[in-house]
Each structure stands twice: as C-alpha cells, then as structure tokens.
Amino acid sequence: MPTSSRAMLSVLTDHGVDRVFLVPGESYLGILDALHDTPAIDVVTCRHEAGAGFMALTDGRLTGRPGVALVSRGPGASNAAIAVHTAEQDGVPMILIVGQVPRADLRREAFQEIDYQRMYGGIAKWVFEATEPGQLAEAAFKAVRISMSGTPGPVVLVVPEDIQQQSVEQHGSRLPAWRAEAHASTRPDDATLQQLRRRIEAAERPLVIAGGCFERAGGREVLCALAEAWQIPVALSFRRHDLFDNRHPLYAGDLGLANPQAQIDAFRDSDLLLALGTRLGDITSQGYRFPDLPRPAQTFVHAYPDAHIVGLHFAADFGLVCDPVELARALTPAETAAIAPARKAWAARIGAIHQAHAAWPRPKPVKGIDFTQVVRALRAQVRADAILCVDAGSFAAPVYRHFGFVPPQRLMSPIAGSMGYGAPAAIAAQLRHPGRQVVCLVGDGGFMMTGNEMIAAVERKLPILFILANNASYASIRIQQEKHYPGRVSGTDLFNPDFAAIARAFGMDAQCIEEPGEVEGALRRGLAANAPAFIEMKTSLAAALPGAERQD
Ligand SMILES: Cc1ncc(C[n+]2csc(CCOP(=O)(O)OP(=O)(O)O)c2C)c(N)n1
Known about the structure:
Elements: H1 4-14, E1 19-22, H2 29-36, E2 42-45, H3 49-63, E3 67-71, H4 75-90, E4 94-100, H5 116-120, E5 126-129, H6 136-148, E6 154-160, H7 190-202, E7 206-210, H8 219-230, E8 234-236, E9 251-254, H9 261-268, E10 272-276, E11 299-304, E12 318-321, H10 324-331, H11 343-358, H12 371-381, E13 387-390, H13 397-402, E14 410-412, H14 422-432, E15 438-443, H15 444-450, H16 455-459, E16 465-470, H17 475-484, H18 499-506, E17 509-513, H19 519-528, E18 533-538, H20 541-544
Parallel strand pairs: 1-2, 1-3, 3-4, 4-6, 5-6, 7-8, 7-10, 8-9, 10-11, 11-12, 13-14, 13-15, 15-16, 16-18, 17-18
Helix pairs in contact: 1-6, 3-4, 3-14, 8-10, 9-11, 12-19
C-alpha cells in the first residue's frame, strides 16, 4: 500500500515533475521519507527557502509545468513567501508544499503554526490545507491544474505532519488515475477571425504587444510568423525580451521602465493594437497610461486565456478569452497577405525609434568599470543558446536596454523585481538545461541575499558564470534618492566583504576585476571555464548616477 505522501508525489511525477527544491523541516519528515522512495524526483537541497522558491519558480518558467518547492512550517514558509509573490506577479506555475503542525494542534497557536489561508490567501491562486491522508493525491492533482490554468501562478499545499505516512486506498493494484486530459484549445469562432483579418488588412499602423503566453514551446515561432506575414511591428511586455528576435527589423522594443516618450507617443499613434497574451499590467502599460484608459483610441484587441484579465484595465473592441498562440496561428495567412501600403513606412518608423534607443552608448569617463561595457562585452562573447539569469538592480538596466536577445537565448529575470532571484535562478536553469550556457548577473545587494545557493553549482559541477556588479551601494534606490532627495544618502551605502574570496571558499575559480581593460579577458576566462566560475567587477556607482559623476 502506498503512503499518502507517495500518492501525492506520484501524481506530481505523473504530471512531469522530476525535481523539487527544498529546505528540510521536522514538519514534513513523512514527505521527505516518501522522496527517499521516489528516484524519479531529483531532490535539490537548498540553504534558504527563498532560494528554494526562486529555483522552483525558474524551473516552472522553463518547463511550463509547476516548479515544486518544499518547506517547513512557520519560519520556512515565511522565508518562502518572496517566491510565492514572484510566481504570482510573473505568472509562473509553482507549487509550494508546506509541512504543518499535527491536526490536533491546528488553530491552537501551536509551535510554528501559521494559518496559510490567511497568510498566502492574497498572493496564491489556491491554498489547501489537507486534513485527511486520502486527500493528498487529489490535492496534488488540483494543485497542478490550478497552477497552470488561466493566468499561471503559485498554489500552496499544506500537509499536517500526522497525515503524511498513512496507507491510502487503491483501486485494484493501482492508484486512482489523477490525470488530466490535455486542455481543449480555445480559439475564437470563424466569423470573429474573419473580422480580425479584415481589420489587420486595413490597418495602416498596427502594433502587436506580445506577452508571456508566447513563452511556451513553439510560441516564438508563431509570433514571428504572424509579424512577418502581416509586416506588423512587435513590442514585448515587461521583461519578456526573449520572445522575439530583438534584431529583427519588425522589433519595436520592450515596454519597460525606461521607454523614451517619443516611443510611447509613436505606439499611441497606432491604429490597431493587438495585445496578445499579455496582462497589460502596471509597467507594460506605463502606469496604466498606454493605451488610453479606459477606452483605447485605436481599435483594441485583447486576447488572453483568463477571462478575468481580458479588458480588465482597458476596454477592448475585441476581448477574446482564448489561447493567444492559437489565435496568432489562426490569424497568420498561409500566403503573403495584402498589406496597406502605408505599413512599410510605419514599421520603419517604429523600428528606427527602437534601434536608436537600444544602440550601445559610449563608455562614460568614470573611475572604475561602467557595467554597460561589461554587458556589451558579454553580448559579444555569449553563445547563441545562452540563458541569462538576472537579479533585480540598476546594474541590469543595460541588459534590458542594449543586450538584444535573439531566440533561443533566454532572459530569466523577476518581473516582480525581487532581489535575490539571480543566483538560485541560474542553478535551476543549468540543472534544467545542462548543455546550455548559463550566466548569472547580480548586484552586491542581491548577491548577499541568496548568493549562498551558489554552493549547489560547486556540488553539482554546474558550469555557471556568476558575474557580480559591486558598486558598494543599493544603487537602484540611491538613484531614486538622488532624484527625490539630492545629496542625502540614507541607508543605501554598502560595506562589502571580499566577494571573490567568498567564491573561492565555496570552491570556485574567482576573479576580481577593477579596470575596464580587464573585462573582456575576464569574461573570456569565465565563459571558457567549463566549471562554476565567479567574477567580481568593481563597478562605478558614478556611471549609474546621471549628473553625479563627481561624487564617486
Ligand atoms: C527583496 C527586495 N528587497 C528590496 C528591494 C528594493 N530594491 C530594488 S533594487 C535594490 C538595490 C539593488 O542593489 P544591488 O543588488 O547592489 O544592485 P544595484 O542597484 O546596486 O546595481 C533594492 C534594495 C527589492 N526589489 N527586492
């Protein structure tokens, strides 16, 4: 007879889960024991629950099925909260399994008890606290389904410690088949598709805004085919740079934190806006100012698989609850389409604005290393299959603006802007794609949050290159300080350890670079290492602070 935990795990493996990330706890010894009997699951032991959560989140994003993290009750669950929030904002399927106090102690303020419904209710798609051993398999099944349906996101399964190792009923010799049929693809009806095709044909200045739904296998190809067939420029939603060839003449740029006004004005001038697979959230919509609120000035098509999202902020002329990839496929003509003559000039205008914005700037005459130049040198050296795992911080700005991703290159960065994401994300990415090149970019602030997870790269011999931008500051915040409270530095200076020495103590080859002339060689050595490698770059804070060059 299988135990309740074995039954839960076998539902997960049935749905493709082959790896979990955890920090152990006495509240889930039974599940740990069941993992001992589940060789199909690779157990990655982490050093902090935020790290485990970020790894699960990254695995979920790379596989399209839920990434799984296991944590202990109370303190463990609290540490994991950042990843639950990030999975929600990033729209990534994730399952967090939390051990819980025994049933008899529930809601008695027992040692390390938390009511997870209340704690996670606002950020998880579903929180379920099991009370019977027989519920665990069904709960796992629902967790998979809910995390992946509509807008993907996090679910939390709470398992009291006294229901983890009971025998559970079987039907005959097999477990109940908790297995989902594939989703029927949703596609608008033919009449609507016909109308849309006519609108696209007639539009002089159409623009696609594509979002995360195109991340799935084949999505990028469908998006590219749609754009090319109709010669429509494609803008990408916040931090989704890797969905479309950034060097393609039809690439219109991303909608992020630093779009020039002229670009948004040009986008506003479109006469047909196709928002496909994007939630059109805060940053993508430039603070809910593009397109016009509540009714966009142009014909507005919004397609998303979640009815709650379609037309949520902006009233759509065509609000389509459907699979955006299937819609894009259905809208792509088999042969070259008839295109309004003005469209060529429109595409050229949009493309030119993006190219001017994305062009590499000249190095700033500053003391130390201008991180933009590091990103430029990295761009020249990385492989065509590279996965960049980027933490939150101002050091990342040139990645978003200038790097120029070309699929299959991937950008893994937290849309929620969560610091501490980079190092764990790199571990999960390299584990998932052992043959690809993985580079982690992280600031000195973010590294000190979860850099400890780097030890897994040494343990498992993962050839990740970690690049740390050390400007001795929480510079993102310092930049804002300079803007709002000039000259009044408060709480943003950082006193730092010897990072390269830390990396060496972890067992990695490490370099510390202070001069711009050393950057290219250091990157070359790091990328060629074929083993975990670490480069600390002493970067210039002045280069990040416009107008404050002399303060460094
Ligand atoms: C977990 C978390 N805490 C705080 C913040 C606010 N925050 C955003 S960027 C940043 C500073 C990042 O510093 P660092 O990693 O050194 O990179 P830099 O900006 O200096 O390049 C802070 C504190 C955040 N986004 N996430």
